[in-house]
Write a structure and sequence with these properties.
The chain has helices at residues 24-34, 63-78, 94-102, 137-145, 158-172, 186-198, 207-217, 223-229, 240-243, 257-275, 280-283, 293-305, 322-332, 387-398, 407-414; strands at 2-5, 8-11, 44-47, 51-55, 84-86, 106-107, 127-129, 176-180, 201-204, 247-251, 284-285, 312-316, 337-340, 351-356, 361-366, 375-381. It is of the alpha/beta class. A five-stranded mixed beta sheet has the order 3-4-16-12-13, with helices on both faces. The protein has a four-stranded parallel beta sheet with strand order 9-8-10-11, sandwiched between helices. Helix 7 runs parallel beside helix 10. Residues 1-9 have low confidence and may be disordered. Bound molecules: iron/sulfur cluster. The site of iron/sulfur cluster has 15 residues, from helix 2, helix 5 and helix 12.
Length: 415
Amino acid sequence: MQLVRNSFVIKKFNIPAYYRSSVTGRIKESRRIKDLRKQDFSPTVLDFGPVQFYLARHFGFCYGVENAIEISYRALEENPDKQVYLLSQMIHNQEVNEDLQNRGIKFIMDTDGKQFISWDVLKPDDIVIIPAFGTTLEVENLLLDKGIEVQKYNTTCPFVEKVWNRSEKLGEESYTVIIHGKPKHEETRATFSHSAKNAPAVIVRDMEEAKQLGEYILGRKNQDEFFKEFAWRHSEGFDPREHLQRVGVVNQTTMLATETQAIADYFRQLMADQYGSENLKEHFADTRDTLCYATNDNQDATYELLETDADFALVVGGYNSSNTSHIVELCERKFKTYFINSEREIRSNDEIHHFDYHRKEKKITNHFLPSSRPVKIILTSGASCPDTLVDRVMMRILGFFPEARSVEMLLAELV
Ligand code: SF4
């Protein structure tokens, strides 16, 4: 079955039932049916009496993740006698990746490209799944040279391919491609590789690095400094004097929308100042951001969560998930926010273990539940998090409130 969502078609994917949720997933689906055109981003309030949850309007598995899960499980089913490899984590979710590993899938690399399994081990009849983030042309060619079929189980998300197409177009129009992304992230490395095939390309992580690059556009820094500051993040043969006169911006699909917009605006203004507004088109490609629909929906739904009067936020997702970290970043603007990858991180009604993504370290917080009633909690997750995990987090919290109304009672009212 296919459903029309905004201007594109959403497929219903065949993913294992244990990733589907009987609570938050049902609530989300009920909201979706009532608001097919996605006009209402307000959270669903789940009032259990002593505890209330503000459940985000959009959260959890996106098109690309469900597509990748369906293809990966199919690859296992169709090839019981072959070794099935994943180039790296299929998506940034520990539970999904562990389940695939338990079924025999092996990961060739980690997220940052560190090799676990040597390329020499791979044989032509092995199955290699390309993850939702896509891969670099170098890796794709290496696999093809080994005689490995790479298209049959290629799970590259179409929204990532859209970025590659945008970069290609920029290259055809002789623009240099500035990629706003995390330089080590698989998707950014793949986008860089595809962009660099057609055009000079350079990666900026954030506004600070965009401004560093701007210094070269303004001619305030020399090229030796460029090669130090942007080492490993520019295409081969990049000449900062020549290749920063005509630029366009694309981004990793899961960046913070407002940051990408600010970076694009910065380069637009810089080029207008440098060459005159009347010549702007010659120097800046006015492209819209290349964030995917899920990133936009999840971030817009998070802005609505910021309008609530919650006591704190729980954001569920993999600790290396880019899109989840941006949801955390938004929640932190107003609320004490706990980034957890499963309900097991809530050790008791007094202790929670959570991830500080700024410092990349785990933390322990005591007394995380306020004594006032009702306790008001924001609950949401990233695009690589199964809804069942969100259910389990909610049930874990509800377990601390024996007087709370039952889930069944609440569902009967809501869906
Ligand atoms: S977050 Fe967006 S780009 Fe990434 S897999 Fe999901 S839909 Fe695709």
